[in-house]
Write a structure and sequence with these properties.
Elements: E1 7-13, E2 17-25, E3 32-41, E4 45-46, E5 49-50, H1 54-71, E6 77-82, E7 88-97, H2 107-118, E8 126-138, E9 141-144, E10 154-165, H3 166-178, E11 182-188, H4 189-197, H5 200-205, E12 207-212, E13 217-223, E14 226-233, H6 237-247, H7 252-262, E15 273-278, E16 281-286, H8 287-311, E17 322-325, H9 334-342, E18 346-348, H10 367-378, H11 380-383
Parallel strand pairs: 1-6, 6-11, 12-17, 17-18
Antiparallel strand pairs: 1-2, 2-3, 4-5, 7-10, 8-9, 8-10, 12-13, 13-14, 15-16
Helix pairs in contact: 1-3, 4-10, 6-7, 6-8
The structure holds adenosine-5'-triphosphate and magnesium ion (MG).
Adenosine-5'-triphosphate (ATP) binds at residues 14-17, 48, 83, 189, 213-216, 236-238, 241, 256, 259-260, 326-328, 330-331, 365.
Length: 412
């Protein structure tokens, strides 16, 4: 029988592609080795959201099939990504009286405090995915990271609550049910990507991850080791393709080839004309037209990114700069463009340092799936000794909030 507690699985349900990563955990250190990878084109998603249950369910099934054949491990449960502009980051605070007669703060006080800080503070029709405690204050003493075991009477919290719209979370659960996968946790895709590409030092210093997907661009800002802000913009690299298709009066398939082979974030120079071969036909385009179309779209996207960074209150104050993930980060000269536009350090991030069948894992489009696998390895589910239910016996509605404090474990 397979020992499921020794495997960790991440499934990134991206708008264009479903990717899954299976890690085998070392018995003593818990370090994962990649033993299975799956990558399948997705359908039935719009702007990060499930709009047709069967499309993503099929893609999940196929991607898991690939990974299962590679690893010989049958996947029953995994940590899953959620995406979409409905994902909301809300700053919140709250206060409770310490309940014990000896005024010793215990875990129950902290749970009660988190409830006080979240109930009624998050807009209606939202499910809380995560509460990220930034700091506690005990009888006026500030900046306490963990108050359990301390003595006092009045306990306060400052936290960030990440929430998602209930219908979108519900659709994701329904898709997972169809694919017979039990979610161990549901994590915003950019937060999972951050887990795979950021170092502890960067998290501490201040850094932003920008996940450039096909249909969305997501931002997560970290400082002092904690997630400070997250947001999803409903525009992605596919918009560049669509603009090229319209502007160059060509098919989206040809426009995609133009983007991949002749597209650049900063204008490329060279011959005036470029040609693309698709389905046996060669078409010629003006290089200036391509440069202009991409420039206009990126300008719009980065204006929106800049606005989100401003909302996070960290604009131009990111000592460790920004790390780009997602397939869109592979556009030529994206790093240079990001540096120029945002005025901070930038690099493309990928999950590195894994042994095993990890060939493409270090590419930016795999960051989310790799991060989800790492988070799965740290989930309560693994901490408590493994899976109970098999594929086909999944139960919905158990993921939201299950990975409480998981983000805190970035520091682990
Ligand atoms: N070499 C490349 N140059 C430019 N763009 C690229 C390159 N490779 C992939 N892309 C683009 O990356 C996008 C897909 O990225 P990714 O796989 O990260 O998206 P996704 O996770 O499916 O979508 P989302 O995160 O928005 O739900 C596509 O628009 C694709 O054209
Ligand atoms: Mg994605």
């Amino acid at each position: 029988m397979q020992d499921s507690s020794r495997y960790a699985v991440g499934i990134d349900i991206g708008t264009t592609t479903v990717r899954c990563v299976v890690g085998h955990l070392d018995a003593t250190t818990g370090t994962p080795t990649i033993v299975g990878v799956g990558e399948v084109i997705n359908t039935g998603m719009r702007k990060g959201n499930v709009v047709n249950l069967n499309g993503p369910a099929q893609a999940i099934d196929d991607a898991l099939g690939e990974a299962e054949r590679m690893s010989g491990y049958e996947v029953n449960s995994a940590t899953i990504s959620i995406n979409g502009s409905h994902i909301l980051s809300t700053s919140t605070d709250g206060m409770v009286a310490v309940s014990a007669a000896d005024h010793l703060v215990d875990h129950e006080d902290v749970v009660r405090l988190e409830e006080v800080a979240t109930v009624g503070k998050v807009p209606a029709n939202r499910e809380i995915l995560e509460v990220v405690p930034h700091s506690y204050r005990l009888d006026g003493q500030d900046n306490i990271k963990d108050p359990v075991g301390m003595t006092g009477t009045r306990l306060e919290i400052n936290a960030n609550v990440i929430s998602a719209m209930v219908p979108q979370v519900g659709a994701l659960h329904s898709t997972l049910d169809l694919a017979k996968v039990t979610p161990n946790g549901i994590i915003p895709s950019v937060v999972a990507a951050a887990k795979a590409v950021l170092s502890e030092q960067q998290l501490e210093n201040g850094v932003a991850v920008i996940d450039m997907g096909g249909a969305t661009t997501s931002i997560a800002v970290f400082e002092e080791g904690d997630l400070q802000y997250a947001a999803v913009i409903p525009v992605g690299s596919n918009n560049i393709t669509n603009d090229l298709a319209i502007g160059l009066k060509t098919d989206p398939e040809v426009a995609e080839q133009v983007k991949l082979h002749h597209g650049s974030a900063t204008p490329l120079t060279g011959s005036d004309k470029v040609s693309v071969k698709h389905a046996g036909e060669t078409t010629e385009f003006d290089r200036d037209d391509i440069n202009e179309i991409i420039e206009a779209r990126l300008e719009e996207m980065f204006e929106a990114i800049g606005k989100e960074l401003k909302k996070a209150g960290k604009h131009a104050k990111l000592p460790s700069g920004v790390v780009l993930t997602g397939g869109g980060a592979k556009l030529k000269h994206m790093v240079d463009y990001t540096k120029q536009t945002l005025g901070v350090a930038a690099r493309v991030g990928g999950a590195t340092g894994f042994g095993g069948v990890a060939e493409h894992i270090d590419e930016p489009q795999f960051a989310t799936a790799a991060g989800l696998m790492l988070l799965d390895a740290q989930s309560d589910h693994h901490q408590n000794g493994g899976h109970k239910s098999g594929r086909g016996k999944s139960t919905a509605n158990q993921a939201g909030g299950m990975l409480k404090r998981l983000l805190g474990r970035f520091k682990a």
